[in-house]
Write a structure and sequence with these properties.
This protein is mainly β. It has helices spanning 8-17, 180-183, 227-232, 481-485; strands spanning 5-6, 62-63, 77-91, 95-102, 111-114, 118-125, 134-136, 159-165, 170-175, 190-195, 204-213, 215-216, 219-220, 238-241, 244-245, 252-255, 259-266, 273-278, 281-287, 290-296, 304-306, 311-317, 324-331, 342-351, 376-386, 392-396, 405-410, 413-421, 427-431, 435-440, 447-451, 453-456, 461-468, 472-478, 489-495. The strands form seven sheets. Strands 2, 11, 14, 15, 17, 19, 20 and 22 form an eight-stranded mixed sheet that branches. β14 and β15 form a beta hairpin. The longest helix is centred in the N-terminal third of the chain and has 10 residues, at 8-17. The radius of gyration is 22 Å and the shape is globular. It starts with a strand and ends with a strand. The relative contact order is 0.16. Bound molecules: CU-O-CU linkage and copper (II) ion. The site of copper (II) ion has 6 residues, from loops. CU-O-CU linkage is lined by residues 134, 136, 175, 177, 309, 430, 432, 475, 477, 479.
């Protein structure tokens, strides 16, 4: 590397100077809706109308996404086929684009299994370029993780069989790990639901995948052109809910008295979303690593910040017939498209019903969470630099595209990691293969739940406690895909 100069301070100044608010601090407050709905209620009232569960649990249907067909008759093996292929996708009112899809579907179909199941995926690549599949959040073998450092990418016409055991229940997703900033933007991603024995039963389940893509009519704007995309990440001009542009998601009838589980995921390349729900009562019941020990309600601002890669599960209770439920998004970042979105991204109308049904109380299972003290502490510094050609590179601990292990930990170690963001851009940090807790979110608060992704805001320092329980060579990177492509990628080894 020749004549490099640190850019952290410069980027910070630029971020502030160009009016882009540092994450989570100077957020522009959107105007309140005409009628301010009642704030979210904490406790779900009502009697338990459904005390005896049926002997055989029917598998809940997950609405909003297509499902992969399990071709294996063994109840503990899920065997499916995925083919990556080029396909034209039509966005109602917005045109048709040539996309990359799994099985011709956008988003990719739902992979569903039970905790402890063996999952076999017969993968075929029909794309005009190599690819892999990464199973984001699943603590599986590193050989099956889709890392191009371990698995040679599957060429055009090639096949690969992914074969792994899924250890944890929760909401996860899959996507490629080769030229991910282009391949994911073009449509390669799909949801994963791993069920656990303790899962509470809900009347309806939905997986809601939120995306933000940059299209010029039916054509993707060129990738990585210009400084802005490399710096902020690729900001889109079309917000998608399960592949449909906002406004074109059909209004759905739901039933008063029903309690639903919504699994939310942000699959954007770069755009952090800030979500609010109007209408029904909402509890946060799960994070990346599965069900929370204690569900909680959103605070007064009723905002949920969803950085790319991260998941939150919501428990949504419809109380009043005739009311509507609106999931709204305000978007923090001004991007290369110059636009920020605002408004409803999904609307559900609660059906009128003559007899008022009291929502039942969801009995909460006893959730085991690890409680371990840190064995050691390390620091990861996020920074940027520019070479003499003006090429922007993103770094972790001064290394762009760190190829040597940044750290090696013995299996079972509990590691406090200080994530130190020297830049003004935000970085959703993702660690493969392990879960962690957020000890300090930058304002001194400990966040509930296990995660594999956490947002580190501009100039922030946060602290996580990582449970290094899954041996292997693991990628650790920023999930702003352009930052990762420009070097914000490291390797962490957990020795057997
Ligand atoms: Cu969601 Cu390394 O990825
Ligand atoms: Cu980043």
């Amino acid at each position: 590397m020749k004549n490099i100069r640190p850019l952290g301070i410069a980027l910070f100044a630029l971020a502030v100077g160009c009016g882009r608010p540092p994450a989570r601090v100077a957020v522009q407050t959107p105007p309140p809706p005409e009628e301010e709905p009642a704030p979210t209620v904490i406790v779900l009232p009502g009697t338990n109308n459904n005390p005896t569960p049926p002997a055989v649990k029917p598998k809940p249907v997950v609405k909003g996404v297509a499902t992969l067909e399990d071709t294996n008759t063994d109840p503990h093996i899920v065997e499916v086929s995925l083919t990556a292929q080029v396909k034209y996708v039509t966005f109602p009112g917005k045109g048709t684009a040539q996309m990359y899809t799994y099985n011709g579907q956008f988003p990719g179909p739902l992979l569903e299994a039970h905790q402890g199941d063996r999952v076999i995926v017969h993968f075929t690549n029909e794309l005009p370029e190599p690819t892999t599949i990464h199973w984001h959040g699943l603590r599986i073998s590193d050989q099956m993780d889709g890392s191009p450092r371990i698995q040679s990418p599957v060429p055009f016409g090639g096949t690969f069989t992914y074969d792994f055991v899924v250890p944890d229940a929760g909401s996860f997703w899959y996507h490629p790990h080769v030229r991910a900033n282009e391949q994911i933007e073009k449509g390669l991603y799909g949801p994963i639901v791993i069920r656990g024995d303790d899962d509470p039963e809900y009347d309806v389940e939905r997986y809601i995948l939120l995306d933000d893509i940059l299209l010029d009519g039916g054509t993707f704007y060129p990738f990585m052109e210009g400084h802005m995309e490399g710096m902020h990440g690729r900001m889109g001009n079309m917000l998608l809910t399960n592949g449909l542009p906002s406004g074109s998601v059909a209004t759905e009838q739901v039933t008063a008295g029903h309690v639903e589980r919504w699994r939310l995921l942000n699959t954007s390349n770069a755009r952090t979303m800030e979500l609010t729900m109007y209408g029904p009562s909402v509890r946060i019941i799960a994070t990346d690593g599965g069900l929370l020990k204690e569900p909680y309600t959103l605070n007064n601002s009723r905002r949920l910040i969803l950085p790319v890669g991260q998941r939150y599960d919501l428990e949504v209770t419809y109380r009043d017939a005739g009311a509507s439920a609106q999931l709204q998004s305000w978007v923090l970042m001004q991007g290369s498209s110059g636009g920020a979105y605002e408004g409803a991204i999904n609307v559900f109308n609660v059906q009128q019903s003559s007899d008022a049904v009291e929502p039942r109380t969801i009995a909460w299972p006893a959730i085991q969470t690890p409680s371990r003290a840190a064995d050691e502490s390390v620091t990861l510094q996020f920074d940027a630099m520019e070479d003499t050609d003006g090429m922007l590179m993103w770094m972790i601990n001064d290394q762009p595209h760190g190829m040597d292990p940044l750290f090696t930990f013995a299996k079972g170690r509990t590691v406090k990691m200080q994530l130190d963001n020297l830049t003004g851009m935000e970085h959703p940090f993702h660690l493969h293969g392990q879960f962690f807790e957020v000890l300090d979110n930058g304002s001194g608060a400990r966040l509930p739940g296990l995660r594999d992704t956490v947002l580190v805001g501009g100039g922030e320092t946060i602290e996580i406690l990582a449970y290094m329980d899954n041996p292997g060579r693991w990628m650790a990177h920023c999930h702003i895909l352009e930052h990762a492509a420009l070097g914000m990628m490291a390797e962490i080894v957990v020795a057997q």
